[in-house]
Write a structure and sequence with these properties.
Layout: E1 10-14, E2 20-24, E3 28-33, E4 40-42, E5 57-58, E6 67-68, E7 74-77, E8 80-83, E9 87-99, E10 106-113, E11 117-118, E12 123-126, E13 134-144, E14 149-156, E15 160-176
Antiparallel strand pairs: 1-2, 3-6, 3-15, 4-15, 5-14, 7-8, 8-14, 9-13, 9-15, 10-11, 10-12, 10-14
């Protein structure tokens, strides 16, 4: 016999009916921004509480130069991470903001699935004076089908530029489905 018979990185799990199934043992991926100084332009959301999902914009382009990190079973493309396998995924995100749209601006971020469904939560940081830095951090457990993807969206209560100096989004399958 040559090769692994197509079962590398799979685990055997009983199906509860005297049989067995093969499941992917793991999948993970990361996208990150490192030492960015290019601002990302934001238009003020009409809802200053930042509770209206439709007022968030996709974090992409020159002000959000995401790069591919380590991955296996999760793929990176421009501004998204795509699940290669159905499962429950642990999402973790953080960002260091080194510039706010104003000295009293609130900035919030959310996860979005397949460009259509927002996560229920948002994370918010606020500037209290000129030169403030800010930190955003979030985590969530989300069930995804194979080829579902995650993107980050951003909003502010003030029009202006935000600088995301360093950031990372990681996605790790914790249970295969």
């Amino acid at each position: 016999m040559s090769g692994d018979g197509g079962v590398a990185r799979l685990k055997v799990v009983t199906d509860g009916a005297n049989g067995f199934d093969l499941y992917r043992d793991y999948a993970f991926g990361k996208m990150h921004i490192t030492n960015n100084t290019t601002p990302f332009a934001l238009t003020a959301a009409a809802d200053a509480t930042l509770n209206t999902s439709s007022q968030y914009v996709l974090l992409t382009g020159s002000g959000a130069p995401f790069a591919n990190g380590t991955g296996d079973g999760v793929t990176f493309s421009t501004n998204r991470l795509t699940a290669g396998y159905a499962g429950v995924y642990d999402l973790n995100f953080w960002a260091c903001l080194t510039g706010f749209p104003s000295n009293t601006a609130k900035v919030a971020m959310k996860f979005k699935i397949n460009g259509t469904t927002f996560s229920d939560m948002k994370v918010v940081t606020k500037s209290n004076s000129n030169g403030d830095d800010g930190i955003l951090a979030a985590c969530d457990l989300i069930q995804l089908s194979a080829n579902d993807y995650i993107q980050l969206y951003i909003a502010s209560d003030v029009t202006g530029n935000v600088v995301i100096n360093n950031s990372a989004l990681t996605m790790k399958m914790i249970k295969a489905l």
